[in-house]
Specification:
single chain; 641 residues; mainly beta; Maltoporin, Chain A; 22-stranded antiparallel β-barrel; five-stranded mixed sheet; 33 strands; 58% strand
Length: 641
């Protein structure tokens, strides 16, 4: 602990170092500028040429502001989103045949994954605070750190970009007593930009479902499922001059949730869960003639209180994180750019089942290089993760992208080392925790190709085909019998598959047509077992569908638009040896209509939406019924002056 103090001080007080070290360096914009202020791309974006990335910008997110991140990704991608019931319940994400703790979710570059479980709850991420959401398939461990065997979801929140004052209101009412309201106000000038957002979500979530685990499969109504949530987000950016910028932000959210009984249960549930989170970040950017220096710092405070008076279970979980990141970038020539830097994380957790307060630290140093040869782009990176008590973990990666046909076609390939350290629950939970667990290690590789056809602003068609392979050694699994389970480094896993996606747009006079779709086929199996049985070798992992797909199409006539969508989720096994009855595949259809209007400086949109249009009865996780047909009506207003 004492040896880490100087490193911590260096990272947590960037202004002192930055101003003294580079105050005399000439100013030149780097990467690109906006409103005469330099914008430095994060390393996770700048070195991602060889990776498949799907991005949703402000215009895409504006139309779904009433939803959370889990609802967005389940509707517009083929990744597997695992939800424990209605919106507001625990929701996580799995990429490419891996598990939810193999997906890193970041906000402004900082990981949101819980240090206790390793997962990130997407239902606690309202889209109204995000300006950009990116899906990074097979994200590089060299750039992100641990927990990216599957990929990463990156959320970005930024101040207002349009000059002047702005404000907005968004409200949506839906089935099962659902109601969402959000308001925002902002100002952007040459020196200062500020934005504030307030939001609330309430739902009764009482919907009918067929309980197939009871005799006769009766149709029942789900009770004790209410949701109450509210929060706020504030951000401010100050441009000291065109080469110096400070940005700060705060995000607070509070949620109270009644937890219903699982299907097949004859005892009503009285369990409740209260979550609260406070997240604060500070970012300092300094650009020089051919280089840039970026310091980022954050403090996260997450709390969860679970109470069940019937089973007499009371659990209080509190975790605080201090995170810091320093990144230096240099343009060494016309073709070469390189980065170097380090990260620091300090975690404190107070969990009843640990029996004591736990504190841990981890460090990392990294470097990356990008060679742009016009037709070729080559990226390399190296990261060294240092966790006390574990041997340092090296994480190299390399990627290449080759463009053809005047950038209308490309081939890309990458290989990256990956790892995931044991979570606090896996190490310290009592009884069962194992502080001697090894980190999961492995590597991913992929190759992809794409083709695009474009005719000015009238026509666009793109295709992407990707094949991938992921090897995970020392996978951590909770094993045991009866009431005692403990985590062990249990097996090796090989996940491999292919993804095909397309996007199409066409303008015919006043009619605009947009289409997109994606299909993913994954085979994810155990290749070696360290303990007990070999009966699961070669079998598809539990809760990993073999096939996922989605399609959406929009027809817009002037200010009126109509959108249809369809999502397919394949069969999922619920046990490692496939002994239990698998959850069947299902198809969900959606339909929405929107009308945009403008009155002077006021922009607005009225919309109606139907999710699960054909009232399909289904489960994503065994025992947790999903809602049937859901109707929603909303209004969005925006003012700019």
């Amino acid at each position: 602990m004492k040896h880490s103090l100087p490193f911590t001080v260096v990272l947590l007080f960037p202004g002192m170092i930055c101003l003294s070290a580079v105050a005399e360096t000439p100013d030149t914009l780097l990467n690109y500028s906006l409103n005469e202020v330099c914008i430095v791309q994060p390393r996770t974006v700048y070195y991602s040429d060889a990776f498949k990335v799907k991005t949703f910008g402000r215009e895409d997110l504006a139309s779904v502001a009433a939803r959370d991140a889990g609802q967005l990704l389940s509707a517009v991608s083929s990744v597997f989103v695992k939800s424990y019931g209605a919106p507001g319940n625990l929701t996580s994400l799995s990429f490419r045949g891996t598990f939810s703790n193999h997906t890193q979710v970041t906000w402004n570059g900082f990981p949101l994954n819980s240090p206790t479980t390793g997962d990130a709850d997407l239902s606690m991420i309202p889209l109204t605070i995000a300006d950009k959401v990116s899906l990074v398939y097979g994200a590089s461990g060299s750039l992100y750190g641990g927990g990216t065997f599957g990929g990463s979801v990156d959320l970005t929140s930024s101040p207002s970009s349009e000059q002047g004052f702005s404000s907005g209101l968004s409200t949506e009412a839906g089935s099962y007593g659902s109601w969402f309201t959000a308001g925002n106000i902002g100002y952007s000038g040459k020196k200062v930009s500020v934005k504030s957002i307030f939001f609330t979500r309430n739902a009764e979530n009482r919907y009918p479902y067929k309980d197939i685990y009871k005799y006769g499969s009766p149709v029942l109504t789900l009770h004790h499922n209410q949701l109450r949530s509210y929060g706020m987000f504030h951000t401010v950016s100050f441009n000291i001059n065109p080469s110096r910028q400070i940005q700060a932000g705060i995000w607070y959210q509070d949620r109270f949730k009644n937890l219903p009984a699982v299907m097949g249960s004859y005892i009503p549930s009285v369990a409740t869960q209260k979550d609260s989170t406070l997240k604060i970040f500070l970012r300092y950017v300094r650009t020089m003639r051919r280089s840039s220096l970026v310091f980022r710092n954050a403090f996260f405070n997450d709390n969860l209180f679970y109470n069940d008076s019937v089973s007499r279970v009371h659990s209080d979980i509190s975790a605080q994180q201090y995170l810091a990141d320093i990144n230096f970038r240099n343009i060494a020539g016309k073709r070469l750019t390189w980065d170097a830097g380090g990260t620091f994380q300090h975690v404190q957790a107070q969990v009843d089942s640990y029996g004591r307060r736990i504190a841990e630290e981890r460090f990392a140093v990294f470097t990356a290089a990008r060679i742009d040869l016009k037709a070729f782009i080559i990226n390399t990176a190296f990261r060294l993760e240092v966790i006390p008590g574990i041997a340092p973990v090296p994480l190299p990666s390399a990627g290449i992208k080759k463009n053809f046909l005047n950038n209308h076609s490309y081939v890309r390939a990458s290989v990256a080392a990956k790892y995931r350290p044991p979570t606090l629950n896996e190490k310290y939970w009592q009884p069962g925790g194992n502080p001697n667990l090894l980190p999961e290690k492995g590597y991913t590789s992929e190759i992809g190709t794409g083709l695009s056809f474009t005719e000015q602003d009238r026509y666009n068609l793109t295709f992407d085909l990707t094949a991938f392979s992921t090897h995970i050694n020392d996978l951590i699994v909770w094993t045991g019998e009866g009431n005692f389970f403990n985590p062990v480094n249990y097996k090796k896993v090989w996940a491999r598959g292919a993804e095909f996606s397309f996007a199409h747009s066409l303008v015919l006079g006043s009619i605009k047509i947009r289409q997109q779709g994606e299909i993913t086929a994954v085979r994810s199996t155990s290749t070696a077992i360290y303990y007990n049985t070999s009966g699961i070798l070669g079998k598809q992992l539990r809760y990993v569908p073999l096939l996922n797909a989605f399609y959406s199409g929009t027809v817009q006539l002037r200010r009126l638009s109509l959108t249809t969508s369809m999502n397919y989720t394949g069969k999922r096994y619920i046990t490692d040896d496939h002994s239990g009855r698998p959850l069947p595949s299902f198809i969900l259809a959606g339909l929405s209509a929107a009308f945009q209007f403008r009155v002077h400086t006021l922009n607005g949109q009225l919309y109606a939406r139907a999710d699960n249009l054909f009232n399909t009865s289904y489960q994503i996780i065994k025992g947790y019924p999903m809602p049937g047909r859901f109707l929603a009506f909303g209004l969005q207003l925006g003012f700019q002056r």
